[in-house]
UniProtKB/TrEMBL annotation, chain A:
Major subcellular site: cytoplasm
Keyword Cytoplasm set for record: yes
GO CC terms: cytosol
GO biological process entries: chemotaxis; signal transduction
Descriptive protein name: Chemotaxis protein CheW
Residue ranges annotated for the CheW-like domain, each copy included: 5-145
Native source organism of the sequence: Gottfriedia solisilvae
Keywords annotated in UniProt: Chemotaxis, Cytoplasm
Compartment(s) of residence: Cytoplasm
UniProt cross-references to Pfam families, sorted A to Z: CheW
PROSITE patterns xref list: CHEW
Amino acid sequence: MMSQVEKVIVFDLNNEEYGIPVKNVKSIEKIQFITRVPKVNNFVKGVINLRGVVTPIIDLRLRFNLEEKEYNERTRIIIVTFEDKEVGFIVDSANDVIDIPNDCVESAPEVVGEQVHDYIEGIAKLDKRLLIILDLEKVLDINDDAEMNVVEVK
Amino acid sequence: MELNQYLDLFIDESREHLQNINENLLELEKEPTNLAIVNEIFRSAHTLKGMSATMGYEDLANLTHQMENVLDAIRNNKISVSSSILDVVFQSIDDLEAMVESISTGGDGKRDVKEIVLKLAAIEKGTEFVEETIEVKNESDQLTLRYDEYDYTVIEQSVDQGFNVFEIKVELTASCILKAARSFMVFESLEQNGEILKSNPSVDKLETEQFDAVFYVTFITKIDKSEVKNVIMKISEIHNVEITSFDLNRIKQESEQKEVMNEIAAAKKEVAVTVAPENEQKNKATAQSNSKTIRVNIERLDILMNLFEELVIDRGRLEQISRDLSHGELQETVERMTRVSSDLQSIILNMRMVPIDTVFNRFPRMVRQLSKDLNKKIDLQIIGAETELDRTVIDEIGDPLVHLIRNALDHGIEKPEVRVSKGKPETGTVELKAFHSGNHVFIEVKEDGAGISREKVLEKAIKNKIVTEQQASTLTDKQVFELIFASGFSTAEVLSDISGRGVGLDVVKSKIESLGGTVSVDSILGHGTTFSVQLPLTLSIISVMLVELQKEKYAIPLSSIIETAFIKKTDIMSAHNQKVIDFRGKVVPLLFLNDLFNVPVESDNNTDGISVVIVRKGDKLAGLVVDSFIGQQEIVLKSLGNYLTNVFAISGATILGDGQVALILDCNALIK
């Protein structure tokens, strides 16, 4: 019996490997000018002009409470579409597309990287590689806690 | 069958046809004898019937069918148009509309249409019986035997050779189960004694039991009548047998009659054919007046626009490169491209424009109904229905306008007797007018009714605690009239006198403001009231002032800017811990956008003045402190997407000429 296979895009973040299903990835872009958006969560770096569409950009390091890192020529923006949202993820590098048989994916063990634990859908074991499969719904869930800052005018 | 893919098309077209019928019915009411209009209505109704039957909406098809019958009767001068007939037709249109709405919201389009169908049928009756009798005749025809020339020859020859020819009517008992078998037995015993020339129903229908208890047979035989009867009656489950001798003369006469009838029918057809081209010509005439259109999903236009903007940005780069290279041919080509692309841009923008007629066209019908309900005589005049507006605005503007027109009819125009006693014409006039002016579209709803009474409005405003009595005495007339838009002005009770003019007007105002427009009212007591709505041409393109905060660029919509100013630092005052300035005699609070937006500071502003953009929300002002002005620009409004919602004081974004994104300030959020 053939087990089902899912294609994922592999990217690096803080020396760990993560995966996002190919079906959710629209494109991979090089780092470009990002317009800062004031008064939003710190992990939202701003918006870019993606071929005429204004697209919000999230720094995944900051999203997972990891240490921020200078962007370099290996830095990539992975444009992800999930449900009605289209968002770019800034990652250290993106370098691979691989097939993952479904039976290689285990649910996340409690101990692995506490910060990211909430955003993990599962862990794929391939030979000696460990691949963290992201739960996009949780990654893209922001509790809108930007404070309303309204000036009284008399 | 998979019909879902056609559903949208069906709904759109149904609406169009219903609208067309509506309009034409109103026309018909004015010119009841104009059959061209009836034909037009008939065509729409007919198409609608066909479409709904195809889509499987039986109630819809059923009602349309009945309506079509009535229209057909009118068309053929069998009944004449009267107001009461039109009322019923209008009523059925209402039902049809309700059904189409139900379908468009995912319902099954079912509705109890029995009553209205009966009403339509009643109208249709009285003159329709002529056709019915024809139908009855046809039915009786079907049950007897028909012969063609060949049959006649056979029969004639048989008679000549001394055969008997009988027409036999065989009736099986009602309880007979195997009718096919019984009829087969009849055939078989008959064929042992002669030849069966013809049967009705035909043999294959008899074999598959497609008949009731009776069938007819033409039988050519040597034996006589009673023997034939005996032969058949030997078979069980035969209820009755009637045998008549074949009367050649009678049959011939009948056939001649039929020929005459056929000729008449053919003649009729010819008449129909000669009429048809006329219709077609009319068809063509109307088709020509309607411009040819295709339906395009507005999302596709958005995508087209996005891609085009990318092109414009690249064009900018190309222009830069060609200038740097100073290559003559290249420069020429780029210039040409620039011209073409700016033409293209205006076409793309124009594609989103829709004549406001698509909103206005439902009002005549509404006014007709309302004036009947209210017992008022009203003449609705529509001016400037061809004025074009962006599709996005069109979609939103309908409800507020309905509100304003209802208001004008209900509270503005007086009852006919009151009008006469005031020396006005009995019929009130409501004028609905749309026109372009600058970057805006104005829509006016003007009536020659009673006007707004200052005293009554104030009385009510004071009662509802919108203004105090003290304030009331200082207000100008204009300010008083504006009070009717105040929330809390209208009350739940239905007031029929002029003081009830505030029903829901606050809703109208907030809706129009949310579209970036304004609404104002002007009134002369005793002479009427005018509501004036000002709307931006489009919601997707706005004029903005680009400003810089350090290195960041922001856009401030021109619609909320009053003016820009350069203020000396020494002129900044402090009140209640808030920096303010004195601007033309008004105290205006300052908002330092750099601080508000936490803009990373790279260089300090060491000049002795600050740049201020004075913005307003309603009659409240605020001064936005920026680092520098870049200039005025038309930009395309874009949303930040579904991920970033509710960003503080940012209403959207735009893409600048250099490809960078600039955010658009929402001044309404900055001023409370």
